[in-house]
Amino acid sequence: MIALVGGIIIAVVVIGIGVMLILFSQQKGRQSADELALTLAQVLNRDDRQGQMNNLVERSRELVFSSRKAYDDCVSEEFHNMEPLMRDLLEESRAGAQTVEKTRESLSELTVAELRSTQKDFNDRLLQAHSVNLSWMNTSRPVVKQLEVGSIDKVNSNVLAPPGFAELKAMDEKSGICDSQTGIYLGNINAKLPGADGDLDFKLSSLAAPVGTTVSSARLTDANVFKQFKILPLAENTASSGNGAGSANNGGSETGAASGSSNLRETEEEKRKAQKVDQIPSAVRVKLSVAVSAGAPQTVSAKNKSEPANSTNSSNTTSSTSSTSSTNPTNPTNPLQDSLAVTTAATTGGAQPAPDLP
């Protein structure tokens, strides 16, 4: 009876320790996921670059609209002597809008590259973390499994409608891209102008607007309100594939080298397409995994241990030995394995108040 009670107590203690280790591993994964998401969110709008880009896009749009209106008025009201000047101003404003769009795309690529670099650095830190290893239960280090970029649902941009262009503001409110109550443009839109300037892009990303002088900071948020733009390839996977392509390019004949170089260029182009996002992201969502295994590790039978490595047995003898080892009752089964997945999201800090025009 005493032995039975003692066995029950030991079993309860062992089960309790196992549950405690699982909860500890899950909490450790949660802390790592929160830290990574918050670190990545701070990269998105670093130095208010995203807020400034949104304001620059909107003011470039104003300039194109006003230049087009001035040119049309000049032609319709028979001020033909002013037509060359108005045409030059219109062409300059259109060229400026195209330059702004290229700069916005470059900023988007830079943001994604910095996100992946930060994720890789964080992964290297996770590799230095300690795992819990017992004779009957093991937990691995947290591993980044997925990185997504996007925005938070129902968050507008930080751009106010131009107060000096009542016609433009009324047109935008009518088209539904500007909130008539707050006067703020919606987020993640392409505010194209009608008519001859419809070929130009004016993309405004989602970013929390300041309330007076109060600016929101980067923070964790519910993963369910996250709107995904794209799943980014993890940095270590891209690096390993790049190394493989480079090693293949170094060997072989001149024809093989040229083919390898062409394949490398195609691979780089595919990488750019895989990482390109249409809008500058303002939020991230990360998924970490912690592997847990229970059970005794698989051991090698005594017969296999005593067998020399350079054995010259025939194929029939080897086959017989393998069959005997697999059916040996002393050879334990593989341990039970599972993984604990943790997903969390974070949004970047809001935009700074836009400077007033002189």
Descriptive account of the structure:
The chain has 358 residues and is of the alpha+beta class. The chain has a domain at 2-157 and 195-235 and 278-297 and 335-347. Helix content is 51%, strand content 15%. It contains eight helices and nine strands. It has helices spanning 2-44, 49-76, 83-127, 166-175, 235-250, 254-275, 302-306, 315-326; strands spanning 132-133, 137-139, 143-152, 189-190, 203-204, 219-221, 226-232, 283-294, 336-347. Strands 1, 2, 3, 6, 7, 8 and 9 form a seven-stranded antiparallel beta sheet that branches. Helix 1 (2-44) packs antiparallel against helix 3 and helix 5 (235-250) runs antiparallel to helix 6. The longest helix has 45 residues, at 83-127. It is elongated and about 110 Å long. The chain starts with a helix and ends in an 11-residue tail after the last strand.
